[in-house]
Amino acid sequence: MNITKVLLLLAAVSGGVLSCKPKNAGDASASGNAQKAYVAPGKYDEFYNFVSGGFSGQMSVYGLPSGRLFRVIPVFSVDPEKGYGYSEETKPMLNTSHGFVPWDDLHHTELSQTNGEVDGKWVFGNANNTPRVARIDLKSFKTSEIIELPNSAGNHSSPFITENTEYVVAGTRFSVPADDANGDVPISTYKQNFKGYVSFISVKKETGDMDLAFQIELPGINFDLSHAGKGKSHGWFFFSCYNTEQANSLLEVNASQKDKDFIMAVNWKKAEEYIKAGKGRKVKANYAHNKYNEKTHTATSEMKSEVLVLDAKSLKDICYFIPCPKSPHGCDVDPTGEYIVGSGKLAALIPVFSFDKIQSAIQSKAFDGEYDGIPVIKYDAALYGEVKKPGLGPLHTEFDGKGNAYTTFFVSSEVVKWNIKDLKVLDRAPTFYSVGHLCIPGGDSKKPNAKYLIAYNKITKDRYIPTGPELTQSAQLYDISGDKMEMILDFPTIGEPHYAQAVSADLLKEKSLKFYKIDENSNKYVTKGEKESKVVRQGNEVHVYMTSIRSHFSPDNIEGIKMGDVVYFHVTNLEQDWDVPHGFAVKGAVNAELLIMPGETQTLKWVPDRVGIFPIYCTDFCSALHQEMQGYVRVSPKGSSVPISFSLGKTNAVANK
Length: 657
Ligand code: K7E
Ligand code: CUA
Prior knowledge:
Blueprint: H1 3-19, H2 34-37, E1 47-52, E2 59-64, E3 69-73, E4 95-96, E5 99-100, E6 106-114, E7 117-127, E8 132-137, E9 142-148, E10 155-161, E11 167-172, H3 190-193, E12 195-203, E13 210-219, E14 222-228, E15 236-242, H4 251-254, E16 260-267, H5 268-276, E17 281-293, E18 298-311, E19 319-325, E20 328-333, E21 339-344, E22 349-354, H6 355-363, E23 367-371, E24 374-377, H7 379-382, E25 383-388, E26 394-399, E27 404-409, E28 414-419, E29 425-430, E30 435-439, E31 452-457, E32 473-479, E33 486-493, E34 500-504, H8 505-508, E35 534-538, E36 541-549, E37 552-554, E38 557-562, E39 566-573, E40 582-586, E41 594-596, E42 601-606, E43 612-617, E44 630-636, E45 645-647, H9 652-656
Parallel strand pairs: 13-18, 36-39, 38-44
Antiparallel strand pairs: 1-2, 1-34, 2-3, 4-5, 6-7, 7-8, 8-9, 9-17, 10-11, 11-12, 12-13, 14-15, 15-16, 16-19, 17-18, 20-21, 21-22, 22-25, 23-24, 26-27, 27-28, 28-29, 30-31, 31-32, 32-33, 35-36, 36-37, 38-45, 39-42, 40-41, 40-43, 43-44
Bound molecules: sulfanyl-(tricuprio-$l^{4}-sulfanyl)copper and dinuclear copper ion.
The site of dinuclear copper ion has 9 residues, from loops.
C-alpha cells in the first residue's frame, strides 16, 4: 500500500467518524441533512403547508421545513376542541340537503391563484362523501363557506381552480342518476340511467363568495382528478376518467378491462359562451349553500333548488376525450400550460399530452369516433411523448418550474424526477412507504417555489414507534434545490394525507387576523360589556348573555333554571388582544365546549337532565388565575318557584362580613 492510498484511507475513516455520513437514504435524516429541516426555537418556518386530513374531514397546517403542526382547521367534520359544529353559530356550516352531516372525507387542498400564482387569499377543500366544496379564509384560518354539489357522488376531482380563481371545479367520481330523475332503478341499468357531472363553481374576486355557475352532464363514468390549463391552455380544464367500461360491480377487475381510459379536455370558455347564450337547462336540484359571517360570527345555510346544466353530448365542442393508459389517476398540467401528464395507476409509463397537438387534433378532427356522444381524439394525435420505464403505478405529478416534473409511484414507493422536454428520468428517491400525493410549494401553479418536495405516504410500517393496530400516516420532506433529491425529514400527519399545497410564509403571516373587533360584533346575542350581561327567560328558553374576560365570566352564578328548560349560553369574549381565547363548558352538557376568540360571540345549547348544581368553567388557560375562571348554575325541579337571578361577585364570604 503506498502512502497516498494510506492517506486516502485515513481520510475516509476519520471523515466517516467525524461527519457520520450515512450510506443510504433511510438514514439520511439522521445526518447533517436534519440541519436543513431544523428551525431553531423562536425562528419561523419558511412555508405554510396545507395538508388534507383525508377521513378526518379537516385540513391541517404545518410549517416547512420543520414539519411542526400549527393548527387543524375544522372543515367538514365537527371539532369538539373548537366547538365547530357544536356551537349554535357553526352548526349551519355542516347543513346539507341530507340535513346536518357531522363528518366527511377531505382529499384535496387548493390555494387560490391570481395570474396563475398562489395569492394567499383562500384555500379550498373537497368533501368526497357528501359532495361539497369549502373555502377557508387565510386571514382567520376558518372555514368561511361550504357549497353542496347536486347530481354528484364521490366529489373527488375537486376542488381544482382556474388561474385567476374564476372557478373551482369539481367532478363526480361516482356516476349516479341525476337528482331530478327517478333514482329507483336497478343498479344493472348503470349504462342507461347513470350520469357523470362536472361542476363549475364561480368565485367572486374580492369576497371569495362561491356560487354554482353551471354543471356539464357527461356519460356515466368515474371522474378522478383534474387540473386547469394555464397560460396558453387557460380556458381549458383536464380531468382523468376511469371505468369507461361502465362497470357497476367489482370495479377492481371490471373497470380494468380496457387498455386505455380517458383524459377529458373541457373548453370551459366555450361552456361559458353557451351559458350566456342560454343553452343551459334549468334542472331541479336541492343543495345547501352555507356561509360564515365574520361580523355576526354566525353561519347561515340557504337551500338552493335549481342548477344550470349543459349537455356535453349535444354541444359537441366543449368536451373531448383523449385515450390514456390504464385507469388514470393524477391529471397534472405543467407551469407553461403546454404539457398534460396523465398517470395510469396500473401503467408502467407516463403519457405526456401536448396542448398544441390537442388543439390541432380538434381542428383537423383527428378523432377515433365518439364515446357515448363525446368525440375521442386519437391517442397519437394528442401525445407529446411517453416517459418510458419511470417506475410502477404513477399517481401524481408536480413541477419545479425549471423544466422538471416529479411523479409519485405508489407500487414502487418512490418519487421520480424527469425532464419534461426529453422525457428522460433524472433521479429517483425512495419513500417509506406507498406514496400517494406530493407537493412542491406552488407546484401546480405557473410559478413553483422549488426548494422542497413533500411526499404524502399511505403506509408508514416501521418508521415510527408503534401505536396499536394503526400506525400514523406520514409525510416526508425532500430538499430538491440540487440535482438530486435528498430526504431531510419524516413527520406524521393527521388522517390520510392526500393532496397538500404550500405557500411562502411571507405571503400570509402579516395578514393573519389577531382578534375580532368587539365594536363590529353584530351577533344577535352579543354582550358588549359586563354591565349588559343578563339572563332572560322566554317561555321554557333561557338566554344567558354572558361575557368572559381574564379571569371571570359575567354572570358566574345563575339560578332559576328549571327542568324542561332549554338554556342558551351566549358567551362574548371581551378581550381585544391577540391569542386570548376563552373556553366555556358546562357539566353534563351533551355538547362540546365553546372556544371563543377575542371579540367573538358563540352559543352553547344545554338541556339540563337533572336537578342540582352545575359548574361552568373556562377550558383554555388564559391567565395565572385561569383556574379561578369558573361559576355555578342551579337547576330546580319543573314548576319550582325559584326566580331567575344572576350575579357576579356576590359571594357567601362577602355576604357574611
Ligand atoms: Cu389520495 Cu387525490 Cu383522493 Cu391520489 S387521491 S393518492
Ligand atoms: Cu379564561 Cu381560562
